[in-house]
Amino acid sequence: MKEAEIRRLLAANLLCVFSVILTAVVPAFVWDGFTVLGTHLAWLCVCSLCVSTLNIILHLVLKPNLSPKRSSFGQKISRFLKCCIYFFMSCILFHAIIVLYGAPLIESVTETFLFAVLLSTFTTLQCLCVLGPNIQAWIRVFSKNGAMSIWESSLQITTMCSILGAWFGAFPIPLDWDRPWQVWPISCSLGATFGYVAGLIIAPLWIHWNRKQLTYKSR
Amino acid sequence: LAASGRRVVFMGDDTWEGLFPKKFFRSYFFPSFNVKDLHTVDDGILQHLYPTVDSGEWDVLIAHFLGVDHCGHKHGPDHPEMTKKLTQMNEMLRSLVDHLGNDTLLLVAGDHGMTETGDHGGDSEKEVNAALFVYSKTALFGAGPPEEPEAVPQVNLVPTVALLLGVPIPYSNIGEVMAELFSGDGDAVSAALQQLSVYHINAKQVDRFLHSYSLVAQDLPAEQLQRLQELFSSAVEEHSRLLAQVQGVTLVPPELESRLGSLIGRFQLYLREARAVCTQSWARFHPLRMVGGCTLIAASCLLCYMASELAAASDSFYRSCLLYPLLWGSVVAVLLGLARVLTQEGLDLLLVSSWAAAASQLGFFWHWWGRHPKRARLAGSQPPLASVGLRQRLRAWLGLAFPMGILLFRCGAMFSDSFVVAEARVAPFLLASLVMLLVGKLHWDGRLTVPEGPKQQLLGFSSYRREIWYLLCLVAMLLVCVRLSGFFHQCREEIPQCRPSLFLSPLASLRNTRAKNLFYLLCVALLAGLVYAVRSWLRHYGNPNSSDPLVLFVRWGFPLVVVCIACYWAVASSADDSLGKLQELVQVAVVAFPWAVYGLASVGLLLLLCNPMTVFAKDTRESAGSIVTPYLGVPSSEADFLHVIPQIYKRMQESQKSRLERGSCKATVAAYGLGSVYSAALVIALTLLGFLLMLLHSERLSLAFLLLFLEAFMLLHIHTRARGLAGDAAPFSVPWYAVISWLLAASQFFYSTGHQPIFPAIHWNAAFVGFHLDHSTNLLPAVLVGANTFASHILFAVGCPLLLLWPFVCEMPSLQKRKSKKEPREELQEVEEHMMEMRLRESPEKFSTALLQLGLKYLFVLGTQLLACVCAAMILRRHLMVWKVFAPKFLFESLGFVVSSICLLLGISLVMRVDCAVSSWFSQLQLR
């Protein structure tokens, strides 16, 4: 059971990684002059869109959280709306935090906001998919021994890796190498993406490695 | 050259404009800063070069091409672009040669080579060697050119060009003329004579320079100077003799010719040796001393760390680990001093003191090592305990990893010139990260959630404590403070697109009167707000009730200081011409108001030293019924005198009253504000210092100071909250993250008060606050400018003991809330919980140990930063940016270290002073 689930997780995560790679490569064929660095904003949009759709589809297909009771259509709608609101709020919150960390306040608002959207895609959207709009569950998952399934462990790892990647992405900005990727927010968004990809790959491996120690409480 | 009427035409790099403004006969400057721009300068020069050469209106023409250098930086030496550039240069030379006249000398020289990567600034062979190409239409070499041309030092260009142009050699030249260029077109003898004469001139100039230089500076070794002198005088004698002989005869005999040759050789020898002596003593680093200094600092850091870890552990610690090493150090110092006296050797003070420090450290480590086995044996006798200790230690190490990681990042940032340049943004970034990490870790450990009941656990439910919102608000405010403080940055020239903050310029420079008034009002309102906040804080803890001079000062002196500062700002920022007749009055006022502030502040500090108690004690026997103030503490009996407790909440008051009536037969004393004696004294001192430092800064930087106080307040509160939530077992030790965040805030506000670690950014204006353009000594302006520069270091270092005290001050509300909810009737227990800082008095040894530990931790973090700086300056001493970035940074950092340590000592001694005063107060009370 567990092995099979880990395999499913691995497959899902590899799909996500693949989609991230595709977002960097495919649009160049369709759209002339598209590069990740040159038309960074476009890439940000494409990447967050693709990752979010893929995540939603995966969530619908795999259904990691089997809800015991069937919910009515109205409930589903309200759930969906709630998710949208949460996502938007998390974008705003990320934007505020990024600005507080030293991003320019007025110039390049679009860049900062799109970066916030990307970060939200990598973190909040995952949470919404796996846990639903349930703050209590979020709080539980992001504390020690809080994860209750491998999906939640994977969520922990990918989220932390994305944020850590974004944090490390800020380091090359002051360097005087004059590279195109040192411009705000390219290094940070690339860092977040690499962190996310690394998290996606690490998570199944780590869970596989520690499968003896990980004893999830049954619900 | 310009002074002697030569027409110098320049074209190329616009750096020359800054170096020699308005010195050129004609000039064509082109922007040079952008390394990526390979062509602007070169194309500009090429456009003007040939017409200028052909026009003939010049004596010296300098064309500074930059393309090759930029190309090397950008692409490296092996790149198609470089080929293009070099080909272009080649073309240029080829066509330039055609434009030259017969009496023109063409010198093509590179000022440096480049490494494999195309950079330079180091001392490798490839970087310091460059090609020199000399061309003239008349033949230069009598015979064929030498097979293996020797390297020509760059300094040789100066005398050569000077003499060729017929102007005197510059005074400070130590180069040697290039003889080949002076051979003329006559026969060998006349050429030799000519060369001899130029060598003579050159040697005389160098000798003059060395003579006057050695009179001023002592760094040239005396015996070598002596040798040089002898060489010179003998050569000159020989020269005059020879000249006399040569003038006598018309046909020069061959033996005279050989003497000529040898004389030239002697002059050459003299010049080369002089140069060697100079380069040796000028460009001299002492690697041994550098390494020694680094090890000393590293050892001190290690010492601080170990001492801070040890201090809590052992009792006889002071004597063995602090006193003996001090004795050791002084013994070594005395011995060295004696040795100096006995041997009459020039042993400098620096060496003596460093040896003394090294000796005392050795003593410390030796004692520590001596104690270590004992402790190990002790631990070995109890194996289960040891293993538990190990696990705990491991966990403690893991807990340390985050703050130490941040510190490591900070130290690593010192090694990169870009990070040093951008440090104004690095420090806040790290501070924000540290605080966020702290909150995240608390959450991860489940400290923020209410311990869940079994039922909730089943549902996977957990809810936050209510305090978490408070904590989050504090963190958000802190982040906002950190971000806002970024608006007060000064600029460095390394970041060309940076604009210095508006707030740095004094108000007087504002043209718009309305804006000026608005800013002025804002600043004054902020000052008043600060005073109000401090006073209400004190009132909250019941300090300003008595009629002590200090309390009176807080009540009346603070507003007076504010009024004085406001008046000074008003006078200083008013337009000069608007006041007309009042000019003299203004002159007086500009001096008088700062002096009033200085005076008031020093009076306040003196009062603080004399009687630092802000406690109002009142015998309540006669007026037990009339007590309505909420600040009231009651000792339950004579024996409980140490438990004099301030009490804050009215809820408590009723229960107290009943107990008062019960115990009114005994002597009861109400003490107001005893719970925060220590911090009150510190806060008052900090406010006074803050006023002084604000006075030294330009008006609008008071906003930054307000942010500083706010941020410090937030940090203290976050620290307190985090501790309360983490449930620390040891209340007497300050965790590392608090110390590191405190220091990060200090360095952040160094930048946010408009400073940068470069010399042009020093606020020299500060030296003239309260003085009218004249200083009798250098000491006072140095102190003023230093205080201005290191304002944030001073404030944060003095406020450092607050990190220890604050949790005690703030513990009351949270404890009370929880307790009173659960068991509202157990007043007695509650009352004993509310000791606040009086807890510290319960265990005086622990208190002093904790202070020592805090100080050592602070010093450790400071020292680590300094160490990183020193190592960076040492390792990168041949770096291109060393004189622009690393060396100033090192100077500022070490000065900041000194200032911080002194202020830390002052802050701690202030706390000790308060402690003494409190003890004497208690003994007086007991006598009564």
Give a short summary of the structure.
With 219 residues, chain A is mostly helical. Chain A has eight helices and no strands.
Annotate the secondary structure layout:
The complex is a heterodimer of chains A (219) and B (928).
Chain A: H1 2-30, H2 40-62, H3 73-100, H4 109-122, H5 124-131, H6 135-141, H7 150-169, H8 186-209
Helix pairs in contact in A: 1-2, 1-8, 2-4, 2-5, 3-4, 4-8, 5-7, 7-8
Chain B: E1 8-13, H1 15-19, E2 26-30, H2 40-55, E3 60-64, H3 67-75, H4 80-99, E4 105-109, H5 125-128, E5 132-136, H6 157-165, H7 188-216, H8 222-248, H9 254-282, H10 287-311, H11 317-343, H12 349-381, H13 383-413, H14 417-421, H15 423-444, H16 454-459, H17 467-485, H18 513-540, H19 549-573, H20 583-610, E6 616-619, H21 650-662, E7 669-672, H22 677-696, H23 702-726, H24 736-752, H25 779-789, H26 791-798, H27 802-822, H28 827-833, H29 838-842, H30 844-875, H31 882-927
Parallel strand pairs in B: 1-2, 1-3
Antiparallel strand pairs in B: 4-5, 6-7
